[in-house]
Amino acid sequence: MQMGKFASRLRCAGIALALMSTNVCLAASPDHPPETAQTKLFNERDLQGWRPAIQCDAQNLTDQERETLAQLAADDMTVHWQAAFGILQYDGAGKPIETERRFGACRLSFQWKCEPCSSATIGLPGGWSVAIGDAHCDGEAATRASGAIYEGCRRIVKPTISADAPLGEWNQMMIHVRPRQIDVWLNGRRIAMTEDLFIETEGPITLSGGPAPLYFRNVVVEPLEISPGQQNSQLP
């Protein structure tokens, strides 16, 4: 009789230990792992995280006009910007789109390709932008290499070399945005840099272009930690 009670207690203790072990394992493997520094701006399925970039003075509009404009812009985005097979496709005829999130100093990387005579503008925080597109739209003799840096509509820096892949092939671009510097890498080569900037405001990442189709994939942004005394790096 005593042996039976002892065996029963052993079984209960074993079950309790098993349950405790299960709880420990569950606690060590949460459903939502901690976020990494990198953020995918395009989830390869839809336009979640993007919105129309309304380029007008909305303060001068009535509530009804603002609502109508927002609806028209949303309709335009769904028609001209599509997600398919892991690629963000733009038909070249729509309005710009921008991220819902705002960024400061960051490292933006993405892959892109285009069709003949197409171009695009990558809008950056602080009102700056980088141009990409068909580098040989005007013929082989007159190239329009990707990577030029703009402030508004004014080109500040043109690329030092043409590093564009052949038309129709994927290009890999990386743009570093720091408080006083922007530098651009294309297909593993550093092609443009400008210094002595004043990028103190945060802003969205913007995509616009035309008149022919463009394609984007693997769009990733990573915030940069900038120390006050950090020096800008020079072009090689």
TrEMBL record:
Q: Which UniProt keywords apply?
A: Signal
Q: Which residues form a coiled coil?
A: none
Q: Which N-terminal stretch is annotated as signal sequence?
A: 1-27
Top-level taxon in the UniProt lineage: Bacteria
> Where does the record place the 3-keto-alpha-glucoside-1,2-lyase/3-keto-2-hydroxy-glucal hydratase domain?
39-221
> What GO molecular functions are on record for this protein?
hydrolase activity
Protein name in UniProt: 3-keto-alpha-glucoside-1,2-lyase/3-keto-2-hydroxy-glucal hydratase domain-containing protein
Give the organism the record lists.
Blastopirellula marina
